[in-house]
Amino acid sequence: MAVSSLAEQQRIDQLQMRGIVKQFPGVLAVDHVDFEVRAGEIHALLGENGAGKSTLMKILYGLYHADEGAVLIDGVDTAIRSPYAAIQRGVGMVHQHFMLVPSLTVAENVALGLKSSRGWRLDLDVVSKRLNELSERYNLKVDPNVPVWQLAVGEQQRVEILRALYKGAALLILDEPTAVLTPQEVDELFQVLEQMTADGRAIIFISHKLHEVLRISQRITVLRDGRRVDTIPTSGATKATLAEMMVGRPVVLEYEQQPSNRGGERLHLNDVSALSNRGELGLKEVSLTIYGGEIVGVAGVSGNGQTELAQVIAGLRPTKGGTIAIDGKDVTGKPPSQLQLLGLSYIPEERMEDGVIKEFTCAENFVLQDHGRKPYVSAGFLLNLRAITDACRDAIRQYEIKTPGTETPIKSLSGGNIQKLVMARELSRHPQVLIAAQPTRGVDIGASEYIHQRLLDERRQGTAILLISEDLDEIMALSDRIAVMYEGRIVGIVPRAQATVRQIGAMMAGAELEVS
Amino acid sequence: MHSSNLRAFLDRLIDGLLPLLSLIAALAVASLLLIALNADVGQAYAALLEGAFGTQNAFAETLVKAIPVMFVAIGICVAFRANVINIGGEGQMIAGALAGTTATLALSGAPSLVIIVAALAAGFLAGALYGGLAGFLKAQFNVNEILSTIMLNQVAVQMMNFLLNGPLLDPSEQGLNHIPKTARIVAEAQLPRLVIGLPDGTLLFDRTRLHYGLLIAIVLAAVIYIILWRTPIGYRIRAVGYNERASRYAGISVGRQMVLSMFLAGGCAGLAGVVQVLGLQYRLQTDGSPAGFTANAGFNGIVAALFGGLNPFGAIPASILFGGLLVGAQNMQRDLGIPASLITTINGIVVVFVVSSQILVKWRGRRRAQQSTTRTEVPLDSPIVVEQQA
User: Fold this and answer.
1) What b-and-e string marks burial along A279-316, b requiring 16 or more CB atoms within 10 Å of the CB?
2) CB atoms within 10 A of CB B195
3) Of A401, A454, A502, B359, which is most buried by a Cβ count within 10 Å?
4) Any residues with CB less than 8 A from the CB of B204 and at least 6 apart, and which?
5) How many contacts, defined by CB atoms under 8 Å, are there between A and B?
6) What is the ipTM of this complex?
């Protein structure tokens, strides 16, 4: 299966989508949209969640079939009826939710669905070799022989990109690729993308992050409610104009800084260590104190112990040493159920895996922890369905969660609305200590703004908040103090007032805090 | 809008009808076998239907065959909802029958209600403990429950063979030892026959073998339904079944739910065993083969549970359908000389189709979910309004 450089295979000079319409039950997801992308160009597709970006691209990739409209590749009407056909025509896609088999290695994942060059025998060594070449060319470092479950999210994305390149993508669709990346990783990704366009590939970059779109793309198409608002050259655009095009109204992009009203010590970690999923020491002797009424932001490149830190505090990962105390009480090794009673709330990083049960309704998910407690139980052993529904309906109203109703399975909500429900649930438990891990990952502007506002409200009410995020902008905007993690350690804690992006970035790459 | 609503309605309709369609498809495939046997397909299925549901007595026999399947299937709903694959219905049923029969024999002379309640309790408990054992092994040592329950089936069969040939052997069979069986239970212990008096005075199921086990099964279905969907216990069982990680996050003890679900599933299967003794056989007896006592109800219950959508109230009609196949097959053999063993084959084909249709329903559901994740939701009140700060 000799996969070759772009010269030898399909080249796509121009791809056009004309008058695309896609109707889903009850919703017109894409409404007569025109879209065009050329070789050597990064074309950004911008819009809020539910604006139709993903649907449009899934049509291009053959996952959905358009009800109306045509796809023209180099002027020729081309029916792409399946992802297989798309790959054959040189269209590759990196999905927002990665399509990797966790238990298989990187090379095995890439080889999935491809014919082996050795007939019925596997040719994983050939795949690995070719992968190494590709990783070198585009500086996408990944070990082909590592099982995917051991990789951090950022690394998994590299695998997805490599896989698309391996299959010979001349046009690559990236669905919210930076949602899971740190500034450094974003920089790396952008270099990769620029290298790829220099090689004559075309890239469609789906995003709702304005500064990234402004930085990387040559043209921007904005979608709203399934319709194309406009396609404009990036050179003439600003954040404010784009935001207004996306949301349909002016948007607040920065928060007012309020002085911290610091209370007593709430959460204290003393030399806490823990193993990572790989069985290595992922968290090394971390000490940290969080006081009531402050937000401590944890910055760091993906996979440097942030996940382990959150899980250890939440009681979901055993400690390998050290102690954890809430309000001065030793809680080391306590199960989640007891920590919850002590006022700990946790907004987990992987909300679809940990935060909600997809098959359950909104109402059922709203009482994930408290279903066995008053007021959700009546007569001692029956669920009080009315109380559950009422509480959920209140939350939906209060948090402006867009859902048809409380009995809708939560998986049919958008990412931002699911996160709002998780947030509503955790805050409704009146936490003393709140751990928010990647609270706005993959969430649109409107919902992010709202979630940030709620976190600031909690801070005002005296909650001790640990905010873990790979989005440095978010950390800088919300934190009172910033702790930076590198290789499982906290390499330094800086008050926000004194922090600069440059300094934090250097610490994220392992530099010790300079004492000034 | 109108057409898409119609499509959603059709989607649901097809999902609901899929089990039935799969049954029809299975019968269509089975008709090829009938043709191969030179039988008239129409006649054969007519005989099947007639034998299963044609007369009051036929229908009663169908129900009698279905009763143990119902109990097992109701229990399977709990286990499968917790994502614990319980293949141990046979063993749990035997455990329940052994305990229930022992209790009945020990209590001979006590009032009827006391014996029956005690026997049912003993049967439930024995089945529950036997099922719970597999759940415990899974929760504590990560022993695959499919393997452990199948193994425990064998253990139970041998235990029954041993007990029925020795300690529990009917004293009157001593020395003769033709059939391994216990002594007959006293009349007070026997479940009454179920006869339904209609308003016009006629009696339904009069002089048939239909017994009160059917009512017990319906009550059990209601209880299990309430547990699964109306109590925190059921909430936790379903939560664990759908997503262990999120359950752990929520502070739910995953292992405990596994044990509990197997306990309940085993208990239901145990009831199947004891009801079979109290309602029908009036003694525990076997021919020594694995299915000698259970008639494969422990396995058929799994299929019936899946056929019924893992809902206790779905399990009941599904079980009746399977009972009908079994009873109808005998009629097919009598009337047309088609070997009744063919029905085992047809049963097998039905299983394959039913299980496949379940997968199809899931697949369709997933596809729909995928489509709807990308759609814009209908706003409840106002569009996003953010408190603005200066």
Assistant:
1) eebbbbbbebebbbbbbbbbbbbbbbbbbbbbbbbbbb
2) 13
3) A401
4) B56, B195, B196, B197, B198
5) 145
6) 0.83
> Coil, strand, or helix at residue A440?
coil
A348 touching B (Cβ < 8 Å): yes
User: What's the rounded Cα separation, in Å, for the pair B333 and B48?
Assistant: 9
Res. B101 pLDDT band, cuts 50 70 90 = very high
Q: What is residue A170's predicted lDDT score, i.e. its pLDDT?
A: 92
Q: Which pair of tokens denotes residue A484? A: 């930076």
Q: Do A12-246 and A265-508 share a fold?
A: yes
Q: Which of A368, A383, A412 sits opposite B373 (nearest CB)?
A: A412
B9 neighbourhood in chain A, CB within 8 Å: none
Domain locations in chain A? 12-246, 265-508
Would you tell me which CATH number, out of the four given (3.40.50.1220, 3.40.50.150, 3.30.420.10, 3.40.50.300), belongs to the domain A12-246?
A: 3.40.50.300
CB contact burial A120-136 (16+ within 10 A = b; e otherwise): eeebbebbbebbbebbe
How far is it, in rounded angstroms, from Cα A357 to Cα A372?
17
Does A54 lie at the interface with B, CB-CB under 8 angstroms? yes
Interface check for A64 against chain B (CB to CB < 8 A): the answer is: yes
Contact A50 B376 (CB under 8 A): yes
Low-confidence ranges of chain A (pLDDT < 50): 1-8, 515-516
Residue B354 pLDDT greater than 90, yes or no: no
3-state secondary structure of B92: helix
Interface test with B, best of A21, A22, A23, A24 (most B CBs within 10 A): A24
Which CATH class name applies to A265-508? alpha beta
Does the CB of B142 have a partner CB in chain A at under 8 Å?
no
